[in-house]
Each structure stands twice: as structure tokens, then as C-alpha cells.
């Protein structure tokens, strides 16, 4: 940090609130992560499908990690701050104090997490309206979006929460309010999760039809009547109070925020790919899909004109890249599913001790173990008799059926490490087959996709990456910076500072290609067969459910 070149660099802070932790990075104007810190945050699960957090706990973690990454840096070089977060729902009263979103009345638990599925009944009723706004969410609203959660609060916590509520924030917007004191919302959050449209705004008829007419009466003050584009500067920058909390000077530019997956997309999708011999070179950005894979996975594709894809969210105008329409596919449980399968296996203690003894992570050890047992076969062919349907937490895309369950076909009585490694491999393949299902649905609707750009925690796993290349038949680009979500958040801060003319310019300069993983086309026939079996699994599930539910 002491060379003349570094002394003249401009820096931006990206703050990312994930499901289980808050992370911050100090990123320079070329997209290099100079410093990085993370801090776990608490999750409460008071009953099945109810997941809650605390906005105070989240903000405290934001402050802690930000102070760490800016420690010792010349504050005058830090030009902007960008936030991204999960699309969780934050509830505060008219004085901005937290309100309980639970039956226990615990006010500090004032966040309904994105993955909370308590509002199943509410979302079914919303979808039954077939209102025109639903065409912008793939025709079917997800239980993970905000209208069903708001309706659940009104119907279940009328006196304790609904009537006392002053503001309902998407978590990314709560963070920009906390930093600036301005209640403006990001176009990203309100368009993607709240049914706002970039051309028509809020639709009064929709809110009245679903029983939330109260929100219309106060001109949408509770859910946002001032909307900014992602990367636009909010208010007058950091307030003195927030600046003190974060360890930054007051007045630094704060950007209108993004949902975490969209920040990841921003961090990778616009990278300059010249010289990598990729099919997307010299083609528009619309030939790319950014896949952000962590606890869950999101598949972000952009288009110049709106494309309506059955079972895939969007099209959303300017929700990620200004001027382009966004479609967003997704899988509700990916990293969480792999953890669930591996840690729940009877051989997990043996895996844990062997991985520790070899000083490797459990997943690095599993990947090595698969190489040992594959013999002369390609590693992926080990699952010829083992097949997984990965919707243990329902299907987000492209089937939009949250009642679907996970399936495993091909189990034996074996209980050892070999069997754990095989079910781990089959689970990763199932997730990749799910990605192929989403991509094929997008392409059938009019997208032209030839390259995947991966980021997020699972992109650090070489087996996960190679399976996605082989199963989709498309090259996978990994960014130079593993923490692409944080780079995306920093790009927002860079735009808010005025140092870049546009988000597109910042994306091209700050997003860097690290490595390209090519598909092995010799394995195509095997994976085509796996895909055929994959689609049969859900057919069989629907068939047996139909039998069981018949009178």
C-alpha cells in the first residue's frame, strides 16, 4: 500500500449482506480487492419455513467489517460506498424502530428472510388473481417475493406489526437508508420483488385486489414512492452518524443499492473477454448469463427487448444493467443443499476427520476422493446409476412449484466414504442439470446464450464449475476476483462517486476475467442421457403425487 501508484489510486467500499454473513471489501478503480473482511450474522428459525434476522445485528456487522477494510487507508482516496443484500423484508415503525415479524413479539427479530416460506397460502391467492403484473415474474409470483409476506403480516400480526409499521424496506434499501437517512428505494428491489414497473410505477389495482389497499392510501410511502436507478447517488451521501459507525468520512457518496445476486451479475457479466477465444467475444452482452452461486443460485440474462420466459422472473427493465431487460432464473437451495446432503450422511464424521488430517476442506477432500475411486472413468460417469432431483426446498425456476420435493434414485446399503462422495457428485450434477433446464427454457423463449459467467462461493469448487461446463455444453468464465459480488457493490459506489460515466464503463474496467473452463464435448452423450433421466424424475414425482391425491 505504499508505492506511488497505489498512493494515487481511487478506492470504493462494497458491502454485501448474504444469508449468513456480512462481507466488505476495499476495491480499487481497476476492480482489485485490496482488503476483505467478513462477520457472521444470526438467523432464527422459530418454526419450520420461518427464517428471521435482526436489522440491528446486520447493521452492526456492516460497521465492523467496513472499519476493518478501511483501517490504515487514506480516507480521502475512498470515493464511494455501495451496498447489496439478500431480498429480505425489513419492518420498522414510524420512528424507524424495529417491529417484530413473529408471534413471540421479539422486536429485534424484524426481518423476514428471503428464503422464508411462511406465506404459501397468501402467494397462492395472489397467483389466483392472474393480475397482469404477474406476467413480469414469469407468470407466477414466488413465495420469496414481498407482497405475500406483507399479506401474511397483515393477516397474522395485524395489531402488533401491520398497524404500527411505518416502513417496509427491502434489505438493500434499508442499508442505503441507514447510511444516508433517505428512504429512496432502488429500482432493482422494487421492480424485482415488489411488482413496481419501470414505466408505470405501482399498480393500485393489484394492491387493492390482493387486500393490501392500505398501502395505496398513503401514496405508497410505506413501501417507497421515490425510486432511484442502481448506482445513482442517494441524498447527500453518508450522514455523520453513519460515517462514525462505518469508520468513513461524512458525505462520501452512497449508491442506490442492488440485490446481492444482481451485484454479482454486475461484477462479472460485463468483463472484457478479448483474447480468451470465447463465443461471446465481439457479441453483445446479451449472449452471456451471469450465475451467482452461493446458498442459492441465480441465473441472470439480459436482453435489448423484453422477453417473457415462463417460470423465470422478469423481464425487469434496468434492474441490473441500465437500459437492458433482465430475466432471472434461480434455484432456491444449492450450496445449502450440498451442505445438507454431505453433513447429513452417516460417513460425514469420517470425512471430517480425514479432511482435517490432510489440512483440506471437506469439499477439496471429496473431490480428491472421487479422483481416487473413478479408476479409468471420467469422474462424472461414476453416477451412471445414481440420480438426484435437487428441489429439496421447492422449484423456483423454471417450474415455479414450491411444493416439489427432492428425490434420490439409486441408493444401496453401503454407508462409507465412497458412497458419500458419490451422492455429493450426483447432487452437484443435479444442480447443473437444473441450470441446463433454466437455460433451455430461456433460450426457447428468445434468449441467445453461449457463455456462462460464474461467481459466488460455489464457483471456488472446481468440480461444481466443470460439471456446469460439461452439462450445459457452454464455456464457464470465472472472474479474476473471486468476490465478484463485492466488486459489483463497489462498482455501484464508483458510479455514485461520479468517477465513471456509466455502470457499463465501470463494469468493463473493474470486472476482470480470471480463468476459462471449457466443456468436455466427448462427455456430451452421457450428460444428455442424465438430463433425460433428470426430466423423468419430476414427471414421476408428479405422477405419484397425483395417484396419492386422487379420491
Automatic annotation (TrEMBL):
A GO cellular-component term linked to this record: cytoplasm
Gene3D superfamilies (alphabetical): 1.20.58.2240, 3.30.420.40
GO molecular function terms attached to this record: D-ribulokinase activity
Domain Carbohydrate kinase FGGY N-terminal per the UniProt entry, residue ranges: 11-267
Every Carbohydrate kinase FGGY C-terminal domain range: 290-496
One GO biological process term: pentose metabolic process
Top-level taxon in the UniProt lineage: Eukaryota
Cited SUPFAM superfamilies: Actin-like ATPase domain
Pfam families for the chain: FGGY_C, FGGY_N
Alphabetic keyword roster: Kinase, Transferase
Keyword Transferase: yes
PANTHER family, per the entry: FGGY CARBOHYDRATE KINASE DOMAIN-CONTAINING PROTEIN, RIBULOKINASE
Family the entry assigns: Belongs to the FGGY kinase family.
Protein's name according to its UniProt entry: FGGY carbohydrate kinase domain-containing protein
Organism: Eudyptes filholi (Southern rockhopper penguin)
Taxonomic lineage: Eukaryota, Metazoa, Chordata, Craniata, Vertebrata
Gene from which the chain derives: Fggy
Amino acid at each position: 500500500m505504499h508505492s506511488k501508484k497505489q498512493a494515487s489510486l481511487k478506492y470504493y467500499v462494497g458491502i454485501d449482506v448474504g444469508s449468513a454473513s456480512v462481507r466488505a471489501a476495499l476495491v480499487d478503480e481497476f476492480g482489485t480487492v485490496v482488503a476483505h473482511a467478513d462477520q457472521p450474522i444470526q438467523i432464527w428459525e422459530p418454526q419450520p419455513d420461518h427464517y428471521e434476522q435482526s436489522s440491528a445485528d446486520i447493521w452492526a456487522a456492516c460497521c465492523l467489517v467496513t472499519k476493518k477494510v478501511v483501517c490504515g487507508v487514506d480516507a480521502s482516496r475512498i470515493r464511494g460506498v455501495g451496498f447489496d443484500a439478500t431480498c429480505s423484508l425489513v419492518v420498522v415503525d414510524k420512528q424507524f424502530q424495529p417491529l417484530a415479524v413473529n408471534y413471540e413479539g421479539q422486536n429485534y427479530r424484524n426481518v423476514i428472510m428471503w428464503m422464508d416460506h411462511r406465506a404459501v397460502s397468501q402467494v397462492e391467492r395472489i397467483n389466483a388473481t392472474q393480475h397482469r403484473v404477474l406476467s413480469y415474474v414469469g407468470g407466477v409470483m414466488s413465495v420469496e417475493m414481498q407482497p405475500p409476506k406483507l399479506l401474511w403480516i397483515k393477516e397474522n400480526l395485524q395489531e402488533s406489526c401491520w398497524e404500527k409499521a411505518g416502513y417496509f424496506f427491502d434489505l438493500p434499501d434499508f442499508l442505503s437508508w441507514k447510511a444516508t437517512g433517505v428512504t429512496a428505494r432502488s429500482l432493482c428491489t422494487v421492480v424485482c420483488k415488489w411488482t413496481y414497473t419501470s414505466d408505470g410505477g405501482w399498480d393500485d389495482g393489484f394492491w387493492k385486489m390482493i387486500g393490501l389497499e392500505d398501502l395505496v392510501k398513503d401514496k405508497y410511502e410505506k413501501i417507497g414512492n421515490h425510486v432511484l436507478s442502481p448506482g445513482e447517488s442517494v441524498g447527500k451521501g453518508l450522514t455523520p452518524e453513519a460515517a462514525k459507525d462505518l469508520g468513513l468520512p461524512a458525505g462520501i457518496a452512497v449508491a442506490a443499492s442492488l440485490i446481492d445476486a444482481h451485484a454479482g451479475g454486475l461484477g462479472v457479466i460485463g468483463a472484457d473477454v478479448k483474447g480468451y477465444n470465447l463465443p461471446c467475444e465481439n457479441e453483445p452482452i446479451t449472449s452471456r448469463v451471469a450465475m451467482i452461486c452461493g446458498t442459492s443460485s441465480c441465473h441472470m440474462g439480459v436482453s435489448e427487448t423484453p422477453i417473457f420466459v415462463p417460470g423465470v422472473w422478469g423481464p425487469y427493465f434496468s434492474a441490473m444493467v441500465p437500459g437492458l431487460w433482465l430475466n432471472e432464473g434461480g434455484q432456491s437451495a444449492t450450496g445449502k443443499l450440498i451442505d445438507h446432503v454431505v453433513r447429513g450422511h452417516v460417513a460425514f464424521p469420517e470425512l471430517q476427520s480425514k479432511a482435517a488430517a490432510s489440512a483440506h476442506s471437506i469439499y477439496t477432500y471429496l473431490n480428491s476422493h472421487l479422483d481416487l475411486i473413478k479408476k479409468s472413468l471420467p469422474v462424472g460417469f461414476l453416477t451412471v446409476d445414481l440420480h438426484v432431483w435437487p428441489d429439496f426446498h421447492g422449484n423456483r425456476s423454471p417450474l415455479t412449484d414450491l411444493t416439489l420435493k427432492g428425490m434420490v434414485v439409486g441408493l444401496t446399503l453401503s454407508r462409507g466414504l465412497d458412497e458419500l462422495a458419490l451422492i455429493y457428485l450426483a447432487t452437484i450434477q443435479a444442480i447443473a442439470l437444473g441450470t441446463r433446464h433454466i437455460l433451455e427454457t430461456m433460450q426457447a423463449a428468445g434468449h441467445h446464450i453461449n457463455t456462462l459467467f460464474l461467481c459466488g462461493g460455489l464457483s471456488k469448487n472446481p468440480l461444481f464449475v466443470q460439471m456446469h461446463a460439461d452439462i450445459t455444453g457452454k464455456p464457464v468464465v470465472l472472474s479474476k476476483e473471486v468476490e465478484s459480488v463485492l466488486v459489483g457493490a463497489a462498482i455501484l459506489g464508483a458510479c455514485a462517486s461520479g468517477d465513471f460515466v456509466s455502470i457499463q464503463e465501470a463494469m468493463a474496467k473493474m470486472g476482470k476475467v480470471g480463468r476459462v473452463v471449457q466443456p468436455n464435448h466427448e462427455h456430451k452423450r452421457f450428460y444428455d442421457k442424465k438430463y433425460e433421466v433428470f426430466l423423468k424424475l419430476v414427471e414421476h414425482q408428479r405422477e405419484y403425487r397425483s395417484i396419492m391425491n386422487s379420491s
